[in-house]
Amino acid sequence: MDIPQRKERKESATTSSRVFDAMRQDLVNGRFAAGEKVAINGLKEQYRVGLSPLREALNRLAAYGLLVQENQRGFRVPRLDRRELDDIAGMRRELEGMALERAILNGDAEWESELLAAAHRLKRADLSLDKVDEWERLHGRFHRTLVAPCGSVWLLRFIDQLHDQFDRYRRMAPGVPAVRRILDAQHGELVELALERDVKAARALLEDHIERSYEVALGSCK
Amino acid sequence: MDIPQRKERKESATTSSRVFDAMRQDLVNGRFAAGEKVAINGLKEQYRVGLSPLREALNRLAAYGLLVQENQRGFRVPRLDRRELDDIAGMRRELEGMALERAILNGDAEWESELLAAAHRLKRADLSLDKVDEWERLHGRFHRTLVAPCGSVWLLRFIDQLHDQFDRYRRMAPGVPAVRRILDAQHGELVELALERDVKAARALLEDHIERSYEVALGSCK
DNA sequence: TTCGATCTCAAAATCGATTTATTCATACCA
DNA sequence: TGGTATGAATAAATCGATTTTGAGATCGAA
Q1: Which domains does chain A possess?
Q2: Which residues in chain A come in under a pLDDT of 70?
């Protein structure tokens, strides 16, 4: 089975798409202050690109929901809002729960292997805490692999989008090591339940997983 | 209650956003052939705009899912694909069903009024068949009003996106007058069930409504 | 003082031209 | 013949400069 990751055609990337990818990462990782107005001329230097590709990237990010576009007034980073976090987390529970049920029904042996591999890579990565970005990458990848065979391209698309939104909050929040350990353990349990094809238990655990992450992420809204 | 429609701030629209709106309409209404490669220089003349705002609009449309962007190879109109229509219709059933349940639980008296008004406007409009675009506008507006008080901005956003995708297929398909009459009648029945706060029946009817629309829309594939 | 109009500056949006990449046709060689 | 290199021609992407807009300062009158 082919577990599609973020970008299939990296070959001959355009300047605009490279900036899009880089800024998406930076926005999700909280490297821009929430609510901040985006200084286009500043970004031009920061990413070493011209105005046209930069503006195209900003337009895409706005359509994707990681920036807010105000006509004639440029772009700004969305504020962190408790209400919106509730919304995002709630939608994650609904959509990822739905996707996981379907994935467990559809997933084949190849998926089982991918899932075990992704979980293992994630587990190994969090031992070396110095590379947070790498851990984040593997974490996102694990969750994507978990629901990948759900059979709906649109569902996966929405889930990806919600993940990016959610992570922006989570990465702004202070870490909670005790909860982090529980969350990490749940990744392994999710794999077990998925392999056992225990649809109900797996869904319940995933929803609990999201709920606990949500409580951590709440720390960003104070 | 405030039923937010498509655009809140029309004031001082930018060229890029006007082109975005116009092209979104045209794409949803099937005024571009499916699978067709987008000739940027042609569009420049068609919409009477320069290259920069046009490209920004295309980038947004691609992020929104109404165009496909291929690096260094420009943009193309997505193909009509039976599998994808299945996916879109299925997701509409799930998400709009979910949203309707919540809307019925949350909707207040103002919503009831808006809903009656939207249904009435729609009913009156389809008597004068010469203005299809106007009917489409009111139809979309009715369905949006129906689920508006669901309480989730993200759910509404996804539903809007799926509607645009779905309508692209439906508007490409030949009309089926007999089914159209049933669908029109269902709009009124949906309002009745919503006002009676009959969550289960309303959801079932909405899912049936989408299913019948889907069967019409199937006419566009092959 | 306070309100409103006008001006100024900085930033956003747009334009026209240039650069870069892809496609398709043609020629060359194994 | 089949495959691969070469070279316009075409289209996409990017650049640098210009135009337009919005925010804030300044002035003047009630």
Answers
A1: 15-76 (1.10.10.10), 82-220 (1.20.120.530)
A2: 1-12, 126-129
E strands present in chain A: 68-69, 75-76
Beta-carbon neighbour count of residue A167 at 10 Å? 20
Report, in ranges, which bases of strand C sit under 7 Å from a protein C-beta: 11-17, 21-23
Averaged pLDDT of chain A: 93
Q: In this model, does residue B6 exceed pLDDT 50?
A: no
Whether the CB of B8 is below 8 Å from some CB of chain A: the reply is: no
Q: How far apart are CA B178 and CA A46, in angstroms?
A: 60
Tokens of A183: 């969350």
> Which residue from A minimizes the CA distance to B98?
A94
Residues 73-92 of A with CB under 8 A from B: 84, 87-88, 90-91
pLDDT digits (tens, 9 = 90+) for B199-218: 999 999 999 999 999 999 99
CA atoms within 13 A on the CB side of B175: 8
Residue nearest to nucleotide D17 (CA to C1'): A51
Q: Is the CB of A83 under 7 A from strand C?
A: no
**Chain A residues within an 8 Å CB radius of B152:** 87, 90-91
In angstroms, the Cα distances linking A123 to A32, A164, A184, A192, B188 are 29, 21, 8, 14, 55
CA distance B66 to B111: 30
- Residue length of chain B: 222
Interchain CB contact of B59 with A (< 8 Å): yes
Whether B64 contacts B30, CB under 8 Å: no
- For the stretch B142-199, pLDDT in tens is 999 999 999 999 999 999 999 999 999 999 999 999 999 999 999 999 999 999 999 9
* Distance, Å, A162 CA → C15 C1': 37
Which of A165, A168, A166, A114 lies closest to A141, judged by CA? A114
Q: Is A115 within 8 Å of A191 (Cβ atoms)?
A: yes
CB A71 to CB B152 under 8 A? Answer: no
Give the H or E element holding residue B17: helix B15-28
* Model pLDDT, residue B130: 74
The token duo for A52 is 């046209």
* Strand C contact at CB of residue B72, distance < 7 A: yes
DSSP assigned state of A175: P
| Single-letter amino acid code for the residue at B131 | K
SS3 category, A168: helix
